[in-house]
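#structure-requests
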Amino acid sequence: MTRQRQRLPVAAALVAFGFAAPASVRAQGVAPADSLETTLQAIVLARQPDLAARRAAAATAEARLRAAGASDAPTLGAEVEDIPDGVNLPDAGQLRLMLEREFLTGPRRAAEKAVARTARDAAGARLNLAERSVGAVVLRDLAVWRGWTGVAARLAAEDSLLQEAETGLQGRFAAGEARYVDVLRLRTERLRVRSERAEALRAGQGGRRRLEGLVARSDSVQPAFQELFDALASRAAAPMTEDTLPPPPDVDSLITALGALRLGDLRVDEARAQAGRVRAARRPQLFGGVGVQRFGDADGGFSVGPSLRASISLPFAVSGSTRAMNQAADLAVAEAAAERTAFATRLRTALLLARDRYAAALERLEVYDAALLTGARQEREAALGAYRSGELSLIELLDFERALARAETDRLRAAIDARFAYADFFTAAAALGAPNDAISGLEAGND
């Protein structure tokens, strides 16, 4: 049984434990077919700390919505007057016990509910964008890891061929049939290949480290998470190609699918709700109370009777400040509408740029025809045999191998670039929706 097959039950167990990808990520259009990759993405989406914080914020906003608009509690008050000797409360000349509350609070409570509702909806919209962004980041960094690992493997194959050629050349040099400059040329070429391979391994390791950093080290799932990486690493490196990527999307359709403009709409809704709360707070407020009162009579005894109280606020008495507050609230609504327009412009521009990069990356990827590369690989052994028999010079062999290796590694790099460009659609929308967010910090430069 291979190591990969030994690891597969781990992935299956993780799926069974409930690490299912959210529907928003499955709707992205690029769900990985491989079960290990699917499991990796599901774990990250379920355990990524910033997403956990977003879910907590969404839950808090939901709880605040349930609590918003509640009626104020009534108040119970007592008054004591004419206290003999300052301490003889039972013989006080007057006692009053009142139960009071505010009436006509419906508009204010409705406004508070509206403010809390927009906050709840905004938290949900940010969570949705963040999930999409993190899901794209997982696939992107996975492509980086596997793609650069593939580049390193191809460079290792080139180094192996050069080593074999060098061994044969040294034998010919010892027999006086080759020049020492050819030996130096081969060794120099091997140094270049080894240097590029080390750089490719570093870049691939960077992708893995970013993936590992998406789950906190203190998380209980970390051991299984590492086993999943080991299972992925044990497989032959094969980056995602154009077959797993959709064509460049229509930007307007993408904006609608992402729901990113919903944040701008909610900002306007919030400003309107705040304006409604300001106006509701400056409406006449009615307070009323009922109670009992005990007071002394002329015969030295006490009488008990009901007590009523009513009061109303007079906003017209401060009409100047009321107009100023209403004007400020209206300007806040206009500001939010302007911000919404600016946000839509920034988002559309960012997505158009991302679409251009993505289309260029796909076009570059299509240049590397798989059939042509397969044919070139078959010619590789023939070229090596011709070199051994002396029909092909060392320089010709080096040129052939360098050109073939460059074409194959460039195809892998093009696949990585395409995945980066595709992820830009989601990371750009998330970053614009929350420019000061930790989520936007998940973006990393292409190694």
